[in-house]
Specification:
The complex is a heterotrimer of chains A (533), B (333) and C (358).
Chain A lengths: L7 H4 L39 E6 L14 H7 L8 E3 L3 E3 L3 E8 L2 E6 L13 H12 L8 H6 L3 E8 L2 E6 L3 H11 L5 H5 L22 E7 L3 E6 L12 E6 L3 H9 L5 E2 L4 H9 L3 E15 L10 H10 L2 H7 L6 E2 L22 H11 L4 E8 L6 H13 L4 E8 L1 H10 L11 E4 L5 H9 L10 H12 L3 H18 L2 E14 L20
Chain B lengths: L3 H13 L2 H17 L1 H4 L23 E8 L2 E8 L15 H37 L1 H15 L3 H12 L3 E5 L1 H4 L9 E5 H26 L3 H8 L4 H38 L8 H9 L7 H28 L11
Helix pairs in contact in B: 1-12, 2-4, 2-12, 4-5, 4-8, 4-10, 4-12, 5-8, 6-8, 8-10, 9-10, 10-11, 10-12, 11-12
Chain C lengths: L2 H29 L4 H6 L5 H10 L6 H13 L5 E2 L4 E2 H36 L4 H15 L2 H15 L41 H10 L4 H37 L2 H8 L4 H39 L4 H11 L2 H29 L7
Antiparallel strand pairs in C: 1-2
Classes of the chains: A alpha+beta (533), B mainly alpha (333), C mainly alpha (358).
Chain lengths: 533, 333, 358
């Protein structure tokens, strides 16, 4: 098997776990009293903005950096357990802790590491730590059954340290794919430290600041499980001093709550603001909305192992029935862009010759008749609180389909777990054959956006030999242009075969203290070191 | 078996005070809404897309509001006027709030009545048997009742839903089927699990009341007489005990309908009812837009409140007139 | 029967009910339509984790052995392990208790502080305007779903501060589930008036007050808890008002009132001292019984206001399908309810020794 396996990888970042908040922000140096946010709610002087609060949509439920593959968790843990490589979405992989790397043969790459990196507990980082961490992630027998290893590092098979600063990665996919994977998902934990946590058997767990030990620019100074993590700049960090001295991470599952925290000065940066709350923030002083079209597309797979979705005409009819531009203009207040294919524009392999299916009820109706499924009743299963106005989008889409005279469609709103399970259950599972999900093609490459859905036999939600073969073929192509062309073909094919109801590209909407200089990334990641005041 | 004395009692208390009349009027209004929702509704309650040309939902009649929308990434302020076909405006996804209000009554009434009925069917026979036979059976029942009552109703309901999941039942609409209301949904989704869970949560109240009645009735002369004639226990329960226990059971049932309506709304609000056509869900939907579109939450909340008030008022009336002995404190939660 | 004997009986009954509660929760797991191991492992668990759970939780054992182990664990306060949160359930529960207790106590205080005077006024001035308003208020209070009430309070606060409905959207007033700043037109600037969340715990607030003579923590705590406490307390306020009113009416009709009145004692004294004391006894019992409603209400109130207590955690656990946490919280709430009721009975028995004779 090659490539990132499936599902939970990109899907998990927009979430709705409720959490607590705290307000250790914009206090001047003398103020020990960090609760008095009543008078200085108007944004503090920029010179004093060395303590900020970041309010996420979901607080981590694990402290093991390998035990998840969830967007908001990375937004916290990447500052503690920094990535090994600098990944620039759409541009590629650049040096960070890994200074240089080189393919050494069939399925292996040798990586040279910096020699001045230390862990927060003072231990020096070596290639042994890196190799051990990678092996712990990708080996299901070791430590936790790591989501990061199974999905993020799907094609990586292991790593081996050669000396203190050299480590070799092994993989069974194309080198380009492997680079995307380790470029994105390689992290490092200290072996000696981790052994105290029985980390080869179990997840790292605990509830004190000492239970974190990475090499990142920030170290944990306070930790209250389910509530907040407070980090401070790490004095012995190998790289540039980070822009803020002290950062509090907390979470609020409600968009309105996050918007309010921002406005009252309780938070300086927050994510996943709903379109309804945009106006509030735009109108408030000292804070603003920053939005970017993300790499995440929202769509509804139709399992072609289940009737009536085995008919290409029927699947196309569904696409013709739904007006995604209309959904964007109304339910999403204008945020988003209709899609014609699995991946978003700016992704390598995006085919800009394709137009979104335009709403055409006559066409849809006759396609349904052609498919022989006229009069069928279907149900669209969709999550609530995962993506921007997801339940509303799904109910609208379902109603648009329901307006076809020969199809009855209703929406079934469920917890995200149900959708996620339906997605990874594969074709054998006939429950919820038509469901709404979002996928962030965070690698910036089409392969990551289509592979998991169309290739692995046990988990794919759509089986089509031609499409599968085309994807596999693209993975073997070394030449960049030739590969891009092949990927465009894949996207074209996906458009025609209509394995999904294509909806839209999700907009990432952040609320930010306007004294913070920062351009949001299209891969939904928040890196403090990319900010400035 | 309602005696003449009780009847005159009922009538007197009804004539004397205002509140039962208010309750009755409200109840009739809600039942009419529920029964004739397809005829009274102006739009299919599930039909989306009723938006102002700016893409924003309509406010209720007579109001306008301003909001911001994005166009090509730029924010612009727009003013939204109401539309005379949407009396109470439209919600986040452009559904008619008035029509959903009517259908919300329908769902509440169906769940409230069927769940209470189910609870009676479970609770009353168990309670009567326990009270009539007494002894071990009775002890066992009382312990089970104590245990059930140790769970707050909502918490127990959540636990049950956590295990059994939530699934809607699509109930066909006879009025639409008969062709009297074209364009209205042919079936409406009723939260099936919630109905059953509601009954499982409140049956024990019925069992307790029925037991109490049976306990006191079994010593009555006519029961003793029937026993001495060799009448079977089953027959005695059916012919003597049950009819004479009905009054307090009916009072209790009235109050429990309100409990179930609130329970259903709470579960729908929390997202555990499995349906979206519900007052509770609509309040949740409006929560995100409370600032700009408060009517989305306000309207269904008023619906719940009126339904519960009407049932409570009638419950109070029945209790005062029929059976002053049911304690306020024992009405369940 | 002596009070001691009565209490002993109540205590044993309580133990029995706790056993019943635990058994029901065990039963629910056993009858769940899915595989218990995957129920325990929770959302998104891989097949490996599910197998690990099966072995470690002993789910591959016969049911009666599982049951014995389950009971043994509960007896020593071991509520199990959350495979999702990777923490002991008991640690999660304990971490959430203070917030819920604060909210429940604050709501009860609000309820008693408002309801008893209201009930007394209502009961002593029967059929006067004050009585009608109090009766209307209690009717509304009992009939309003508290999650809606919470939202409406937030909304009304906006209206209160000069924002006419429904043009709320035109104002810069940030109005949402969490905090409502005053609009600057009121001249207070951006004063934070949070309606929910718990930035400072009551303990921290008290210690700041005592050791640092700092009022601001207490202020923060009060500002945060006010609306949730009102939201949760309204049902009780209404209920206690009703009970106080009818209790007062009953008591005032009793012969002793007329006789003390004849002695020339001022009527205010009679009303508050003698009559109210006799009225309070049944109210305490009702309060005990209604603690369950309070806890159910807390689940919803905490969700509306994002208040980090047991109820919010229960809802999170349900959404995440985290069975161990869910059952831990449910069992904890039930046990707390049972214990509170025993305490209430003890209180009741000591106030009114006749009870134990029943």
């Amino acid at each position: 098997m090659s490539g990132a396996t499936i599902a939970t990888a990109g899907v998990t970042s927009m979430a709705g776990c409720l959490g607590d908040d705290d307000d250790a922000d914009d206090t001047d140096d003398a103020a020990v009293d960090d609760t008095d946010d009543t008078d200085d709610a108007d944004v503090a002087d920029p010179d004093e903005l060395d303590e900020i609060t970041v309010t996420l949509s979901e607080f981590p439920d694990t402290i093991d950096p390998l035990d998840h593959i969830t967007g908001p968790y990375f937004d916290i843990y990447d500052h503690i357990y920094e990535p090994l490589f600098n990944f620039d979405p759409g541009e590629g992989v650049f040096p960070w802790i890994a200074e240089e790397w080189e393919e050494t043969g069939e399925g292996s790459t040798e990586v040279t590491l910096r020699d001045d990196v230390v862990f927060h507990n003072g231990d020096e980082m070596t290639a042994d730590d890196v190799a051990w961490t990678i092996n712990r992630a990708v080996d299901p027998e070791k430590g936790v059954a790591s989501d990061l290893g199974a999905f993020g590092l799907g094609s990586i098979t292991g790593a081996e340290a050669h000396d203190d600063t050299t480590v070799e990665f092994f993989y069974d996919g194309a080198p380009g794919l492997a680079e995307f994977e380790f470029g994105n998902y390689a992290r490092v934990i200290s072996v000696d430290w981790a052994m105290d946590y029985n980390a080869e058997e179990d997840a790292i767990s605990g509830d004190s600041p000492e239970d974190f030990n990475g090499t990142g620019p920030y170290q944990v100074v306070e930790f209250e499980p389910e509530v907040e993590i407070v980090v401070e700049a790490f004095d012995d960090y190998w790289g540039d001093e980070p822009p803020f001295q002290r950062v509090t991470f907390n979470a609020d599952g409600e968009s309105s709550g996050r918007a309010n925290a921002l406005e009252t000065g309780e938070a300086d940066l927050t994510m996943n603001i709903l379109p309804e709350d945009v106006a509030t923030i735009e109108d408030a002083d000292g804070v603003e909305i920053r939005n970017v079209s993300s790499f995440r597309t929202i769509f509804c797979p139709m399992k072609n192992s289940v009737e009536p979705y085995d008919s290409q005409e029927f699947r196309q009819a569904i696409n013709y029935a739904v007006d995604s531009q209309e959904i964007i203009d109304t339910v999403l207040s204008g945020f988003g862009e209709p899609t014609s294919q699995p991946v978003a524009p700016d992704i390598n392999g995006f085919n800009d010759g394709l137009e979104p299916y335009a709403q055409d009820y006559d066409m849809a109706e006759s396609l349904v008749e052609e498919s022989g499924y006229g009069g069928v009743e279907i149900e669209l299963t969709a999550p609530q609180g995962r993506y921007l106005n997801d339940a509303d989008v799904a109910q609208t889409a379902a109603d648009m389909i329901d307006q076809l005279p020969n199809v009855d469609c209703s929406a079934n709103i469920v917890d995200f777990g149900v959708v996620s399970d339906a997605n990874s259950a594969g074709l054998d599972d006939p429950d919820h054959p038509f469901y709404m999900i979002g996928w962030g093609t965070v690698t910036g490459d089409t392969d990551y956006g289509v592979q998991g859905f169309f290739v692995p036999e046990e988990t794919r939600s759509f089986a089509d030999e031609e499409l599968t073969d085309a994807i596999i073929e693209s993975q073997q192509i070394e030449d960049i242009d030739e590969r891009r062309q092949k990927l465009q073909e894949v996207n074209q094919m996906a458009h025609e075969k209509a394995p999904w109801l294509f909806l839209h590209v999700e907009e990432s909407i952040y609320g930010v203290n306007e004294n913070i200089t920062w351009d949001p990334r299209p891969d939904e990641t928040i890196y403090l070191w990319e900010m400035d005041v | 078996m309602i005696s003449d004395r009780v009847k005159s009692n009922l009538k007197d208390t009804f004539v004397d005070s205002l509140l039962p009349k208010v309750g009755l009027v409200l109840l009739i209004a809600i039942l009419v809404m529920a029964l004739f929702a397809p005829l009274l509704a102006t739009h299919d309650p599930t039909r989306t897309g009723h938006f102002h040309e700016t893409g924003a939902p309509y406010p209720p009649m007579g109001y306008s509001y301003e909001t911001q929308v994005a166009q090509d990434g730029e924010f612009g302020e727009v003013s939204v006027e109401s539309n005379s076909t949407h009396v109470l405006g439209t919600n986040n996804i452009g559904q008619d709030v008035y029509s959903r209000f009517l259908y919300g009554a329908r769902v509440s009434v169906i769940v409230g009545l069927s769940s209470t009925l189910l609870a009676m069917l479970i609770g009353v026979p168990i309670g009567l048997v326990a009270g009539y036979y007494g002894g071990r059976v009775d002890d066992g029942l009382m312990r089970v009742a104590d245990t059930m009552l140790a769970f707050p109703a909502l918490v127990l309901a959540l636990a049950l839903i956590g295990v059994f999941g939530e699934s809607p039942v699509h109930v066909p609409d006879p009025i639409v089927m008969a062709g009297f209301a074209d364009g209205m949904p042919e079936t409406i989704p009723i939260p099936g699990t919630v109905t059953i869970v509601g009954a499982l949560v409140i049956w024990v109240w019925f069992a307790r009341v029925a037991r109490g009645e049976a306990l006191s009735l079994r010593n009555e002369e006519y029961v003793k007489a029937a026993q001495s004639f060799g009448t079977g226990n089953a027959q005695i329960l059916r012919q003597h005990i049950l009819p004479n226990s009905l009054t307090p059971i009916i009072v209790l049932a009235t109050i429990q309908v309100a409990v179930i309506i609130l329970l259903e709304a709470s579960l729908a609000y929390l997202g555990f009812s499995g349906t979206t056509l519900s007052w509770g869900y609509e309040i949740e939907r409006g929560q995100d837009v409370l600032r700009t579109r408060p009517w989305v939450s306000i309207v269904p909340g008023i619906g719940i409140m009126l339904a519960v008030i009407s049932v409570n008022l009638l419950g109070d009336w029945l209790r005062d007139a029929l059976d002053p002995n049911i304690d306020q404190s024992k009405r369940g939660a | 029967m002596s009070i001691a004997k009565f209490l002993l009986r109540r205590f044993l009954q309580g133990i029995f009910v706790i056993w019943g509660v635990i058994t029901i929760m065990f039963g629910l797991r056993a009858v769940s339509p899915g595989d218990p191991a995957s129920l325990m492992a929770g959302e998104g668990a891989t097949a490996e984790i599910i197998e690990q759970v099966r072995v470690q939780e002993g789910l591959d054992q016969p049911l009666y052995l599982q049951y014995i182990e389950y009971l043994q664990g509960m007896m020593v306060g071991d509520f199990g392990f959350s495979w999702q949160a990777r923490r002991e359930v008991s640690a999660i529960v304990i971490g959430r208790i203070p917030a819920t207790v604060e909210l429940a106590v604050a709501a009860t205080v609000v309820a008693i502080a408002i309801a008893i005077p209201l009930g007394v006024i209502s009961g002593t001035r029967r059929n006067q305007p004050a009585d009608y308003s109090a009766t209307m208020f209690s009717l509304l209070g009992i009939s309003t779903p508290n999650f809606w009430l919470g939202l409406m309070l937030i909304l009304v606060f906006a209206v209160w501060f000069g924002i006419p409905y429904p043009s709320v959207g035109t104002s810069s007033l940030p109005l949402s589930g969490v905090s409502v700043p005053y609009p600057s037109s009121v001249g207070l600037g951006m004063v934070d008036l949070p309606t929910g969340r718990r930035d400072v715990s009551f303990g921290v607030a008290v210690s700041a007050l005592v050791f640092e003579q700092s009022l601001s923590e207490m202020g923060t705590w009060l500002r945060h808890i006010t609306l949730p406490a009102i939201t949760l307390g309204t049902y009780f306020t209404a209920l206690i008002t009703r009970l106080t009113r009818s209790g007062m009416i009953d008591e005032l009709g009793k012969p002793y009132v007329t006789s003390v009145e004849a002695k020339g004692l001022p009527s205010v004294l009679i009303r508050y001292k003698h009559v109210l004391r006799n009225t309070l006894i049944p109210i305490i019992t009702v309060l005990g019984l209604q603690i369950g409603t309070l806890m159910g209400g807390a689940v919803i109130t905490e969700t509306v206001f994002n208040w980090p207590g047991l109820g919010l955690r229960l809802i999170d656990a349900l959404h995440d399908r985290d069975w161990p946490v869910m059952q831990g919280i449910v069992i904890f709430i039930a046990i707390a309810f049972i214990i509170i009721n025993i305490i209430v009975d003890a209180l009741y028995a000591s106030l009114d020794p006749q009870v134990s004779d029943e």
